[in-house]
Fold:
Amino acid sequence: MPDFSCTICPFNCKCDREKTFGVCGLPNKFLVSHVQPHFYEEPMISGCGEDQTKGGSGGIFFTGCNGRCVFCQNYLISQREFWEKKTQKESSEKELFEICLDLIENKKCHNINFVTPTPYSHLLREFLIKYKDKIKVPIIWNSNGYERVETIKSLKGLVDVYLPDIKYFSNDLAIKFSKIPDYFNFASEAIKEMHSQVGFPRSGSGGMIEKGLIIRHLVLPENIEDSKKVLNWIKNTFNKKAHVSLMAQYYPVYKSKDFPEINRPLTKKEYANISDYFISLGFEDGLIQDLESSDQKYTPGFK
Structure:
């Protein structure tokens, strides 16, 4: 087997993950930490029925991440200091396909939702080339936005729905809170490529998304002005047809306590400020998450 030089994400480690680890600390194989029907994504992804014995989004949460957000709500499976202490089950392509089939056929999920897929992009590309036609529901790419355009281009025709974050406009904030340098430049270019592939969201039966780009932005306490700059960029780049999911679900967790300015939820004043600004931009589509969503009960119960 030839050496594998990892250039998947903006860190561009160029390490051979068969032999050593880069920033993400992950091997060159699938590690799946958690699988579940997820009922707390956007309604057009999860559905909005109250019966949680069927439906929902088919969440496949991959181990690890190329970001190191101090407020990560998935830190138990995303951050190496936690996941590397647990026994990690490796999954083959066939086993990953069987996970997808179980979510679709037995759990009746509306889609397959790859959560934190970026470090596995090359493996998922080969997986989707082989199995996409057999999955028969939309494939969702649910990422932190810290992507290389070249990687996103390699997924053209294989991903139906892109669900990226755009976390920051400020490079200083991106480094301070997530240790991801030059974040906005990489995320903005990647998101433009995503849009060029799938366009604005289109829904099918029951209002469930079939294809398109939904841009998420998590609003942080004390950082409303940065959020406004992110929203301005989205409006100026994609016009008022952009589908934005403005998220108010932030609550302090993991290392947030080390940063007093974000060691609390959003205030009602901050929420009203950013909500009013979002509305003033005149987006024709999108969602503003309720302030009550700032609750740990909406985060999957990782073990």
